[in-house]
Amino acid sequence: MRWEVIFEPAHLAMYGQGVLTTLSLLLSCLAIGGVLAVVFALALTHGPAPLRWLVGAYTYVIRGTPLLIQMYMIYYGLAQLEWIQARWDDIWPWTMFKDAFFCALLAFALNTAGYTAEMLAGSIRETAPGEIEAAQAMGMGRWQALRRIVLPSAMRRTLPAYSNEVVMMLHGTSLASAVPAMLDVTAAASRIYSDYYLPFEAYIFAAGIYLTITFTLVGLFKLGERHFLAHLAPRTH
Questions:
Q1: Mean pLDDT in each 10-residue stretch from start to end of the chain (237 residues)?
Q2: CA dihedral over 100, 102, 108, 114, signed as positive or negative
Q3: Which of 32, 154, 211, 219 could cysteine-pair with 109, CB 3.0–4.6 Å?
Q4: CATH classification at residue 135
Q5: Is 98 contained in some domain?
Q6: Within its chain, how far is the Cα of 236 from the centroid?
Q7: Whole-angstrom distance, CA of residue 134 vs CA of residue 129
Q8: Per the structure, how many domains does the chain have?
């Protein structure tokens, strides 16, 4: 074991840059995917039949194909089309496809949106009839009740399942290392492995970083569940 190589300042700085890239990818894809998931969930539960079928087909494809393939389809497929490359120097949004970070972010955001939309749609469908009846008794219309009662309640109840999705997306960001010019935590470990042939040290250190971030996220979600789902906890006498 040659751990002194891992703890050289230059290599620690490379891992630090990888952590920043990983967290940037994670937080950005969760923000974009979260907004898309709300829109898709509303389409699945309250949209017209053609829209429900279209969004349902999208979530089916997203959940039925590997994330790595989806990322390759965007970076090596969509971004390499001659029609896009002819416009990616001066026409937005095609200029974004020159950036490897954007291609990875787009793949991750579309992926998490598909999974989260189905979770949120399921929670909306399982809303207690009493909550809707109470909203109607207070004079709320359908969309007002959805915005003020149903959707916030569904989001709170989705929190435990969503925490698993966030952790899975954290681990999924390691696939960004398959895209050239992307320096995430896994890519940093791969560079040390290729330069010094230290697979155990490089990847064990990377695993420790992912484990630390994972436990931090789980702890934050536990605090959130205690706050937002306290009314669902069993009562003690």
A1: 88 95 96 96 92 96 94 85 76 79 93 96 88 80 83 89 94 90 92 91 95 95 82 57
A2: negative
A3: 32
A4: 1.10.3720.10
A5: yes
A6: 36
A7: 9
A8: 1
